From TrEMBL:
Catalysed reactions, semicolon-separated: (7,8-dihydropterin-6-yl)methyl diphosphate + 4-aminobenzoate = 7,8-dihydropteroate + diphosphate
Pathway: Cofactor biosynthesis; tetrahydrofolate biosynthesis; 7,8-dihydrofolate from 2-amino-4-hydroxy-6-hydroxymethyl-7,8-dihydropteridine diphosphate and 4-aminobenzoate: step 1/2
Keyword list, A-Z: Folate biosynthesis, Magnesium, Metal-binding, Transferase
Annotated source species: Haloferax mediterranei (strain ATCC 33500 / DSM 1411 / JCM 8866 / NBRC 14739 / NCIMB 2177 / R-4) (Halobacterium mediterranei)
PANTHER family: FOLATE SYNTHESIS PROTEINS, FOLIC ACID SYNTHESIS PROTEIN FOL1
InterPro entries: DHP_synth-like, DHP_synth_dom, Dihydropteroate_synth-like_sf, Pterin-binding_dom
Protein name per UniProt: dihydropteroate synthase
Metal-binding as UniProt keyword: yes
Pfam families on file: Pterin_bind (PF00809)
Length: 382
């Protein structure tokens, strides 16, 4: 996992999770507390409600990305950029300032006049965007989107999100964003849930990950909460996202989100990192699909994915004959059956997904109960 330097702010596994607060200079934005058109008032909000509360990055939006609203042109966004630049002049606190846009012309003008990084909500649908960011040596968040400047984030299936993030490549300072939220009519809450469930897979790109899950519908729906009452579910998901590998959390609730992110960071799995002549890093891989993403990154054969993680199942209620049969078959398949005391009906079956899949085919004389147990395991290992 590479570290991205965003105007001196280090983003990656070796650094704390970074908090991205939000300022909108667009009257269309649905979150009114973050919307300003007076630069001095906006600057006061940035200083007191974002930076003082723990924001490392301030993301400035020039227009609402609401799919129900008309998309502004690059010229329209450039007109609003003057207000955003005036905010920067009035801010006294220290933070990295990000411009949210889909147009390379706007990104270029913002970077020329004081912004530090870009949040591209259309994921390089403008093919000139990566060139501009590279010329300014600027970090850029790339949100998974179709190749269409009018449809930010409008992707449903998780595997299609991967294809979208790869479109038009990456810069050395890219940060990937899988695009949570209702960006299209076809995108369901279940799509977001699956994306969140598979969040570790996005580490396979080797670039830091940004997530924007603040009070999102797929979280509110779990607890049956309104937007106003959804902070607790957002904070729970924030800790989980950081534990699963997210590096930047974009939020309107800066102080609380910072604390939740730090908890996730404190208790996440510690990976070995030895950047010597031969560097060593333990990858955060828990499923074959996650392993496959890393194998793709280094150009290796995906067939190794099912041999890359170990699964452990507890079986209770084994007969003596089933236990003897399973122990012999496990050895042949490359798995292990660890049993308890003589007479115990329980055991632990340990093996890679590939070994457990082989096991179902090498058990010679299983009872119907054991056959059902093996079928259950093979349905879940991948």
């Amino acid at each position: 996992m590479r570290t991205v330097d965003a105007a001196g702010l280090k983003i990656g596994d070796d650094h704390p999770p970074r908090i991205m607060g939000v300022l909108n200079v667009s009257k269309e934005s649905p979150y009114k507390p973050s919307v300003f058109n007076d630069p001095s008032e906006a600057a006061e909000y940035v200083d007191s409600e974002l930076i003082d509360e723990g924001a490392d990055i301030v993301d400035v939006g020039l227009e609402s990305a609401n799919k129900r609203l008309d998309v502004l042109s690059a010229e329209d966004e450039l007109e609003r950029l003057d207000t955003a630049l005036s905010v920067l002049d009035h801010v006294s606190g220290d933070a990295v300032f990000s411009i949210e846009t889909r147009y390379h012309e706007v990104a270029e003008a913002a970077l020329e006049q004081g912004f530090d990084m870009v949040n591209d909500i259309c994921g390089f649908a403008d093919p000139e965007m990566p060139r501009v960011c590279e010329e300014f040596d600027a970090a850029v968040a790339k949100m998974a989107s179709p190749p269409d400047l009018t449809c930010p984030g409008a992707i449903e299936e998780v595997d299609d999100i991967y294809d979208a993030l790869e479109r038009n490549g990456f810069t050395d300072k890219t940060i990937v964003d899988p695009a949570f939220g209702g960006w299209s009519e076809a995108k369901t809450l279940e799509h977001d849930r699956e994306t969140f469930d598979r969040l570790r897979e996005f580490r396979g790109y080797g670039y830091p990950i940004l997530v924007s899950i603040n009070r999102k519908n797929f979280l509110r729906d779990v607890a049956g909460r309104s937007t106003e009452d959804a902070l607790p579910v957002s904070l729970a998901a924030t800790s989980m996202a950081v534990e699963r590998g997210a590096h930047i959390i974009r939020t309107h609730d800066v102080r609380e989100t910072r604390d939740a992110a730090l908890i996730g960071h404190e208790f996440k799995r510690r990976r070995v990192r030895e950047p010597g002549d031969v560097s060593v890093e333990e990858l955060d891989v828990t499923t074959p699909r996650e392993a496959a993403r890393h194998l793709d990154r280094i150009g290796a054969n995906r067939d190794f994915a099912t041999e890359s993680v170990t699964r452990v199942f507890e079986l209770e209620g084994l007969s003596a004959d089933d236990r003897e049969e399973l122990a012999a078959a496990a050895a042949d398949a490359g798995a292990v059956l660890a049993g308890g005391d003589t007479g115990s009906t329980g055991a632990l079956l340990i093996g890679t997904p590939a070994a457990l899949d082989r096991l179902e085919h090498v058990v010679a004389d299983a009872s119907p109960a054991l056959e059902a147990a093996l079928e259950t395991m093979t349905q879940t290992v991948n």
